[in-house]
Write a structure and sequence with these properties.
With 322 residues, the protein is of the alpha/beta class. It folds into two domains: 11-19 and 164-292, Aspartate/ornithine carbamoyltransferase (Rossmann fold); 38-161 and 296-308, Rossmann fold. Helices cover 37% and strands 13% of the residues. The chain has a five-stranded mixed β-sheet with strand order 7-1-6-8-9. Helix 2 (85-96) links the parallel strand 2 (74-79) and strand 3. Helix 1 (43-62) packs across helix 5 (162-176). The longest helix has 20 residues, at 43-62. The chain starts with 10 loop residues before the first strand and ends in a 14-residue tail after the last helix.
Length: 322
């Protein structure tokens, strides 16, 4: 999500309940598909990614397996924006699965400068089995995907960050043992109006409830998860001082979290700055930010694996229930 207007910031509150119950069913293949935004996948398909992420985490981390289904495969990492978690999780994840990664920073490729996006996509997709791009405008993802002959993963755009949401879902399931009936409060941003329309439509179809408010205490009341993000994203440095003033009342601190549910957790995609959340909350026992960061690895591994080949998890499906 992005700050869509520099007026008084909204604080968005998500209620998740009463969603459809899912049954064990045949999952369609993801092979060859793009991963640009989660709205391109239904709830069963999202659960399949999460199930596989949980399965891979258990196989590699707990059982210490050597499992390399992507031996001989390669991924090209196109980064207009610098990154820690996205780059490291993808490179180490692809390595564990037996494949290779090649990092292409802003100075390494000619995307949109001396070579068109379409031409770059055609060249790179002739040399890699899959691409991941971390960009500014979301249109770049769509253009790359349209011109590429191999799957394209959105590593982050100014509009969507689907890999982060998968990691958040996996973290919540690990902590609460479910995703259904959780109340999630997002503090600080005014979502893009088109994204709001899409979310409202999905909520009406699934039985979930979305509520938007300017009152942070109202939003976090009895919340199971309190979530915030970096207020000044890369490319928005000129807006720093103005945004700090706008968001002054939206700092997640001890006073704000008093109204949350007894079992509340705090989440942040990182990097984090104290002006967004105090140390007392960020490092509290309720904080799951580092578990959340690690899960970026297991979820991107699941996405890469499914886009390149069909995979059936070895371990039983966790309880997601959404």
């Amino acid at each position: 999500m992005i700050l869509s207007r520099l007026t008084r910031p909204k604080l968005i509150k998500f209620y998740v309940w009463g969603s459809i119950q899912l049954t064990q069913k045949y999952y369609s293949s993801f092979v060859g598909k793009n991963f640009a935004t989660l709205k391109d996948f239904d709830s069963n398909e999202i659960q399949k990614f999460l199930w596989t992420a949980n399965d891979l985490k258990t196989r590699f981390k707990k059982d210490k397996e050597c499992f390399q289904p992507l031996h001989g495969k390669s991924i090209g990492l196109i980064f207009q924006k610098r990154s820690t978690r996205t780059r490291v999780s993808t490179e180490t994840g692809m390595g564990l699965l037996g494949g290779q990664s090649v990092f292409l920073g802003a100075s390494d490729v000619h995307i949109g400068v001396s070579e068109s996006l379409e031409d770059s996509a055609k060249v790179l997709s002739s040399m890699f089995d899959i691409l991941l791009a971390r960009v500014f405008e979301h249109d770049i993802i769509d253009t790359l995907a349209a011109a590429s002959s191999v799957p394209v993963i959105n590593g982050l755009s100014d509009l969507y960050h689907p890999l982060q949401i998968l990691a958040d879902f996996l973290t919540l399931q690990e902590h609460f043992g479910r995703l259904k009936d959780l109340k999630l409060s997002w503090v600080g941003f005014a979502p893009d109006e088109n994204v709001i329309k899409i979310c409202d439509k999905i909520a009406s179809q699934t039985g979930s409830l979305l509520h938007y408010t300017h009152d942070p205490k109202e939003a976090v009341h009895q919340a199971n998860a309190i979530i915030t993000d970096t207020w000044v994203s890369m490319g928005q440095e000129k807006e720093k001082e103005r945004k700090i003033k706008l968001f002054a009342d939206y700092i997640v601190n001890d006073e704000l979290v008093k109204g949350a549910a007894p079992n509340w957790v705090f989440m942040h995609c990182l990097p984090r700055y104290p002006l967004e959340v105090t140390d007392s909350v960020f490092y509290a026992k309720n904080s799951v930010v580092f578990q959340e960061a690690e899960n970026r690895k297991w979820t991107v591994m699941a996405v890469m694996l499914h886009l390149l080949q069909d995979y059936s998890p070895v371990y039983p499906k966790p309880n997601f229930g959404f």
